[in-house]
Amino acid sequence: MNQADTGTRAAVVGAGVVGVTAALALQQRGLSVTVLDPQGPGEGASSGNAGFLATELIDPLSTPTMLRKAPRLWLDPHGAVALPLRYLPKLLPWLARFIAAARPAQVTQGRQALAALNGAAVAAWRRCLADIGAEEELVASGYLLVWESDRGRVEARRQMEHLQRWGYEVEWLEAEQLRTREPGLSRRLSHGLFFPNAHQVRDPLVLVRRLAQAFEARGGEIRRARVERLVPASNGVTLKTPEGNLTFDQVVVAAGAWSHHLAKSLDLEVPLETERGYHLTLPGRGQALRQPVGSAERRCVMTPMSCGLRVVGFTELGGLSLAPVKRRYASLCRHTGRLLADATGLDAPTEWMGFRPTLPDSLPVIDTHPDYPTIHFAFGHQHLGLTQAAITAELVTALVMGERPALDLEPYRVTRFRRSDGQEQGERRHVS
Ligand SMILES: Cc1cc2nc3c(=O)[nH]c(=O)nc-3n(C[C@H](O)[C@H](O)[C@H](O)COP(=O)(O)OP(=O)(O)OC[C@H]3O[C@@H](n4cnc5c(N)ncnc54)[C@H](O)[C@@H]3O)c2cc1C
């Protein structure tokens, strides 16, 4: 339901799940909103994800444990981590920051900041979907995390206790209980953890399209245009596009893995990288599993969706322009064949690769520009962009409206990284 028109014109740059939820939330508050994107709604990373609200992922990606495991995951030909050598020189500065982010104090802060967003995520999605009458897109599915090797018991036990301390409901399942819970899985599994309160969406692309349709039905505009630059102006912000200039009162940058290019045009250096992820979708196998299933050892997730069974995996730190690496699809096929009881459909999957936007500390940016109070940011949600989109939309809307956000946004500041010249960003922070 929209509030009365405020007369304020806002633009959202990027029509991914983060941009479209933000556009709807702004529109709901009475702003006249235009979304700009050269692609259709949800056609970036938001189309091909695992569709799982991974609220239990509260650990930052860079931790001492992860760094210890990374070389093995990288050297294994089917391992989950890939660093294309051609891209390595470009990646090194980001990698150095990523490694530095494993300091215990930073991990603790990062965990608190991720848990704050994830803890608010499902309720925000419910509000968003109830507003447009699309509650059925969110499914209370539960989630299974499984191990094939008996050696994984210690890790599983540690993970269960860790998450229980953070208030998550987690149940231990032995092989027999796993088979009852999920008959679609191979009989070779050893044990697993069940998260009864977990949620998935029916299909992430359909979800964004429904959000976009609701937005347009309420008078919102979606323009196919690439924003080249943002120029602060006396009467708002001008967006430079190949088709001409457009001026708005307020702008939200939600351009996923491309957002740092736009931030740079505003004198902000944001060390955003992309973790390229791959998926296979097996059409006609949407009933193969009862809920999303993650493999702790293979580091892939299989989700039953309305479009089929989707299998996602890989963290490939390869930038935005290299072509997809074909053998990753073969690895995903191999993993799926080992995990499912019935591997029908693996001979004809659809293949996809997309760009997770990731900062070295694994936290998104949800903030206002330190010098230009009409420019706001909502990007960098790494593996959690679907999970955190609706809460991010509410938070960034509070910033646009000049209200106090429901969460402390200090951990998500755009200025938490230094300028390339070493000067601390945010020294000129505007008090508005
Ligand atoms: C394989 C895989 C599996 C995943 N699984 C999950 C999961 O299960 N759960 C979860 O929570 N998250 C998951 N994620 C992460 C999630 O998909 C992303 O974090 C999320 O989609 C990011 O959304 P976004 O709107 O920021 O970016 P995108 O969806 O990439 O949207 C950004 C948009 O900005 C546009 N854009 C870029 N530059 C410009 C410009 N200059 N002008 C105008 N528009 C521009 C792009 O065209 C694009 O449409 C997964 C990601 C991958 C790759």
Please describe what this structure looks like.
This protein is an alpha/beta fold and 432 residues long. The protein has helices at residues 17-28, 64-75, 88-100, 104-132, 153-165, 175-181, 204-217, 259-264, 327-339, 385-401; strands at 9-13, 32-36, 52-53, 81-82, 138-139, 143-147, 171-174, 191-195, 199-201, 221-223, 229-233, 236-241, 244-248, 250-253, 273-282, 293-295, 300-305, 308-316, 350-358, 365-368, 375-379. The strands form four sheets. Strands 4, 6, 7, 8, 15, 16, 17, 18 and 19 form a nine-stranded mixed sheet that branches. The longest helix is centred in the N-terminal third of the chain and has 29 residues, at 104-132. The structure holds flavin-adenine dinucleotide. Flavin-adenine dinucleotide binds at residues 13-19, 36-39, 43-46, 48-52, 54, 226-227, 254-258, 262, 277, 279, 312, 354, 356-357, 379, 381, 383-387.
Sequence-ordered SSE layout with sheet pairings:
Blueprint: E1 9-13, H1 17-28, E2 32-36, E3 52-53, H2 64-75, E4 81-82, H3 88-100, H4 104-132, E5 138-139, E6 143-147, H5 153-165, E7 171-174, H6 175-181, E8 191-195, E9 199-201, H7 204-217, E10 221-223, E11 229-233, E12 236-241, E13 244-248, E14 250-253, H8 259-264, E15 273-282, E16 293-295, E17 300-305, E18 308-316, H9 327-339, E19 350-358, E20 365-368, E21 375-379, H10 385-401
Helix pairs in contact: 1-7, 1-10, 4-10
The structure holds flavin-adenine dinucleotide.
